[in-house]
């Protein structure tokens, strides 16, 4: 049995080898045949590979890039189709070509006006003659226009109607209508044209112009891929998938689709639905631009973020250009690392509060100058603040006071301080849905550059570098009852009306600090506006909480007095935070040093932005008191008029109409309140005008042929006929 089994296995193995060798030989023969056909077999007198390379090309068919929308559905970026108009004069038969070429020339000249009809016809005839006489090798692609045409013009070329007579088989003629220009008109059976070509390309267009330009982003001119902003960050989603098709080679740079080949059709890109509010964005950019111009500043940015969700409503970035105008050339809010200055004091004070510091604890700041090892600490107030509470240290932004707080709680345990910074999410990027955010540079005791004074300088905003967005996220967490949320710019990715991906806001599961510490920190932020460095933006309509920050600029390794990066970070309304806002104005110039601090430069921008947001966002307005008696209010406001008009007013006020008579009426007191009675409606007699609106009085008087003059405002109180005219007194 074993011997027979072994013989069977050997036999199967031998047969397998024979089959394998046969397949290898067959494959080699197929490859050889393909190679032979390509390089040696002739087609129209040329090897196939040479013929195909000069007549047919496999190329991509562009996909339409997805749109970018604002949070209310307004279009912020889209792709518009443009078409290159050209013709292959070799496609049409001779009869059609020579009978239609004049019509095409006339239509081109009349519609686009770039050349005369004779010029078009001459070029087309020359190309056709070259093709017919010169061994059929003439110019096979004539570009008819110097520019690409819009979709509207494309529709004219393919859809313009023409009327004429057509000859039937029995020799008679009948009237007919055609759509499309000669040579571009499509055959109903095949969809092909007689040589006219409209090659599509897509151009990116921003309906709001430069609004949020750097955030929305733009494309690389050569590759047509997203270069910056959302265009780059969501390149794969927006770009779609290009198709593949066969193209006829017309010349070295021109390739036209083969109309007999459908190819692999492109898949258009997805749409982005962002959190940007175009009105908030316009408010932010306008306020920022005005201040930058006023102070001749280097650059600035404004961010408006919804407190609970982290959705960014506006993100404005403006930099001074060579012509002194301001444009969005760099995303400072996202990528601009720098010293945060005194806005960082919130982190230091919150850490101290977590360690048990009382806001009422006294600190003796003396004359505003202190030394610690090699560090000299100065307050901006030259005579100092004297003895103040921890609450006032923050409100007045005392560097000496913050140094004393740090000395009490962290100089002997720096690791604990930087641990708090990690807990506050200040040692990591926010992870926003956009490329380009750097890691914050916050020193730790293990860093090589850590020194004995690092903790001192860090406590009030130096020797650390963070982006404005990273700082705003921290302040937003304080406003959000301690819960840190990730900033969001994109809410949904959609394909038409179908949601492809829903972006869910990320919120930390634990607070960044205890409820008591957060409560005290918010009181400190409110105190800055009520009693501290930003009292100039206090107002009676809504409460603001925030902190000013003025950081000296580092130039060639040295801090330069008078050259500042100013900022203000806060939220509103302070008692029920809805939005957090950051403002940065860098290197303001032209005023005294004291007028270049954040309270004078950045804080007013914050207030201007917030004032306009409060005015715009109806959800932030206090509810209108409910009218207890709409009938009596209507009677008080309207004392006389036409019954039909009063019924319209009642309908708009959503009350039952109190007017049950017709014509001209007046309100009269009644034991039950007010009742409406008819006034004399005799067309030959002028009714009583008292209590009427000016509009009704003018109507009646002018219909009776009287001239009218009036003075005052309100309803008609008195009237008299004098000097050929009625004089109305309104009160």
UniProtKB/TrEMBL annotation:
Keyword annotations for this protein, in alphabetical order, are: Carboxypeptidase, Hydrolase, Membrane, Protease, Transferase, Transmembrane, Transmembrane helix
Instruction: State the signal peptide span.
Output: none
Superkingdom of origin organism = Bacteria
InterPro entries per UniProt? Beta-lactam/transpept, Beta-lactam/transpept-like, PASTA_dom, PBP_dimer, PBP_dimer_sf, PCN-bd_Tpept
Residue ranges spanning the membrane: these are: 12-35
Domain Penicillin-binding protein dimerisation stretches: 60-249
Any idea which GO molecular function terms this record carries?
A: carboxypeptidase activity; penicillin binding; transferase activity
Q: List, in alphabetical order, the GO biological process terms annotated in this UniProt record.
A: cell wall organization
Instruction: Kindly state one GO CC term assigned in the UniProt record.
Output: plasma membrane
As for subcellular location, the record says: Membrane
Pfam families, sorted = PASTA, PBP_dimer, Transpeptidase
**Ranges for domain PASTA:** 685-724
Where does the Penicillin-binding protein transpeptidase domain start and stop, copy by copy?
300-610
Tell me which SUPFAM superfamilies the record gives.
beta-lactamase/transpeptidase-like, Penicillin binding protein dimerisation domain, Penicillin-binding protein 2x (pbp-2x), c-terminal domain
What protein am I looking at?
Peptidoglycan glycosyltransferase
Please name the source species: Runella rosea
| Record lineage | Bacteria, Pseudomonadati, Bacteroidota, Cytophagia, Cytophagales
């Amino acid at each position: 049995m074993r011997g027979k089994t072994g013989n069977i296995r050997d036999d199967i193995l031998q047969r397998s080898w024979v089959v394998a060798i046969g397949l290898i030989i067959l494959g080699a023969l197929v490859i050889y045949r393909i190679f032979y056909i390509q390089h040696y077999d002739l087609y129209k007198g040329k090897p196939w590979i040479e013929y195909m390379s000069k007549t047919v090309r496999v190329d991509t068919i562009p996909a339409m890039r997805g749109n970018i929308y604002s949070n209310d559905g307004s279009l912020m970026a889209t792709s518009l189709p443009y078409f290159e108009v050209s013709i292959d004069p070799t496609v049409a038969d001779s009869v059609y070509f020579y009978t239609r070429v004049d019509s095409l020339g006339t239509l081109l000249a009349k519609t686009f006006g770039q050349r005369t009809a004779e010029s078009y016809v001459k070029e087309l005839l020359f190309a056709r003659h070259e093709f017919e006489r010169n061994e059929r090798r003439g110019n096979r692609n004539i570009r008819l226009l110097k520019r690409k045409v819009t979709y509207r013009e494309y529709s004219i070329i393919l859809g313009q109607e023409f009327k004429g007579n057509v000859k039937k088989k029995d020799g008679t003629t009948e009237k007919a209508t055609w759509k499309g220009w000669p040579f571009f008109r499509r055959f109903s059976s095949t969809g092909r044209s007689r040589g006219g070509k409209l090659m599509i390309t897509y151009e990116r267009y921003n309906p709001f112009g430069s609004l949020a330009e750097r955030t929305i982003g733009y494309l690389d001119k050569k590759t047509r891929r997203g270069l910056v902003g959302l265009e780059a960050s969501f390149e794969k989603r927006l770009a779609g998938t290009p198709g593949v098709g066969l193209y006829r080679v017309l010349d070295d740079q021109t390739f036209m689709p083969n109309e007999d080949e459908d190819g692999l059709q492109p898949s258009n890109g997805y749409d982005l639905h962002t959190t940007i509010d175009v009105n908030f964005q316009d408010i932010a950019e306008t306020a920022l631009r005005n201040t930058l111009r006023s102070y001749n500043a280097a650059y600035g940015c404004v961010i408006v973020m919804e407190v609970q969700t982290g959705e960014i409503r506006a993100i404005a970035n403006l930099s001074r250009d060579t012509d002194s105008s301001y444009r969005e050339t760099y995303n400072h809010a996202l990528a601009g690392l720098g010293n945060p200055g005194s806005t960082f004091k919130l982190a230091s004070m919150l850490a101290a509060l977590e360690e048990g510091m009382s806001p009422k604890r006294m600190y003796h700041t003396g004359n505003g100058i202190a030394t610690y090892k090699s560090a000299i600490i100065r307050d901006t107030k030259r005579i100092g603040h004297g003895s103040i509470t921890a609450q006032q240290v923050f409100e007045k932004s005392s560097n000496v006071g913050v140094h004393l707080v740090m000395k009490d709680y962290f100089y002997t345990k720096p690791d604990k301080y930087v641990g708090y910074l990690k807990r506050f999410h200040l040692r990591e990027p926010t992870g926003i849905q956009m490329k380009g955010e750097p890691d914050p540079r916050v020193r730790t005791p293990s860093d090589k550059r850590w020194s004995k004074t690092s903790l001192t300088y860090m406590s009030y905003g130096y020797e650390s570098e963070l982006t404005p967005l990273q700082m705003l996220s921290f302040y937003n967490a304080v406003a959000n009852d301690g819960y840190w949320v990730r900033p969001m710019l994109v809410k949904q990715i959609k394909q038409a009306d179908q949601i492809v991906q829903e972006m869910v806001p990320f919120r930390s599961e634990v607070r960044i600090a205890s409820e008591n510490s957060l409560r005290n920190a918010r009181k400190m932020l409110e105190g800055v506006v009520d009693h501290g460095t930003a009292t100039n933006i206090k107002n009676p309509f809504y409460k603001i909480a925030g902190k000013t920050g003025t950081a000296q600029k580092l130039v060639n390794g040295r801090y330069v007095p008078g050259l500042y990066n100013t900022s203000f970070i806060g939220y509103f309304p302070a008692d029920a935070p809805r939005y957090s806002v950051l403002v940065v104005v860098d290197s303001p110039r032209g005023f005294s040093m004291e007028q270049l601090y954040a309270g004078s430069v950045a804080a007013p921008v914050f207030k201007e932005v917030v004032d306009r947001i409060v005015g715009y966002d109806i959800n932030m307005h206090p509810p209108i008191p409910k009218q207890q008696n709409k009938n009596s209010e209507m009677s008080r406001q309207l004392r006389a008029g036409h019954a039909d008009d009063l019924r319209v007013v009642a309908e708009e006020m959503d009350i039952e109409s109190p007017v049950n008579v017709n014509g001209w009426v007046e309100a009269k007191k009644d034991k039950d309140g007010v009742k409406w009675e008819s006034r004399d409606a005799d067309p030959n007699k002028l009714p009583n005008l008292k209590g009427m609106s000016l509009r009704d009085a003018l109507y009646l008087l002018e219909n009776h042929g009287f001239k009218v003059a009036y003075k005052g405002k309100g309803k008609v109180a008195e009237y008299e006929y004098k000097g050929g005219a009625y004089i109305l007194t309104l009160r």
